[in-house]
Amino acid sequence: MRYKLTVEYDGTKYHGWQKQKNARTVQEELETALLKLGIQTVTTASGRTDSGVHAKGQVVHFDGDVKIPLSSLPFAINAYLPEDIAVVKCERAADDFNARFDAKQKTYCYRLYVSRLRHPLFENNHYHVTGDIDLDKMKKAAKVIEGEHDFKCFEASGSTVTDTVRTVYEIKIETKKFIDCFEVEIYVTGNGFLYNMVRIIAGTLLYVGQGKLSVSDVENILKNKDRTAAGKTLPAKGLTLEEVVYERS
What we know:
It is built from 5 helices and 10 strands; from the N terminus they run E-H-E-E-H-E-E-E-H-E-E-E-H-H-E. It is globular. It has helices at residues 26-36, 73-78, 135-145, 197-209, 215-224; strands at 2-9, 44-45, 54-63, 85-93, 105-114, 127-129, 147-150, 165-177, 182-190, 239-245.
């Protein structure tokens, strides 16, 4: 039987999702927990999150002969998982369901906070910005990025992907005000992403907000496919995989 899990994790202590030699990963922890329940299997995720990246809605499938009732399975698995990883939902899946290849869209969120002072409770999952930023300009630049484009300009080096055309359905920028700082959440929804694409998009939008790039600069970066002209790749700790959708309306 095939099962579909929704998994949440804080990626701070992990070298990403995928199992590696001599490195602690989320996949290894999950498969170890399943093995302790007598389920020897290989898990497949919707995609590999990099070292330090978090997830609220990572989707995973696995095959196994599971004796535990479906409603109790998340509790049973979580009993053997570390505190920074948890199964938050478990479902039966069709035998041909594939968490990776059946995904139609994903939403990532890059979080940063703007403050003159450092806030420890934000540090594990936000990027700290100390100066003022122009949110209106960032939102205008985000609209330029939406749509189908060759996103080579937002791909980090080291990728072996040959087709760099992707569709970004929507970029939303939301803010929350606190006593002496405010949080900025950059939600990016698309049909797929290149290596470090969301972190580079976030870095480019931040540069626009800081006045280092203009909205027209972003248009030219996309047109010329020029990675060197785009913003920097922001740290992994600010990125969270929010949701994976398998049927688009």
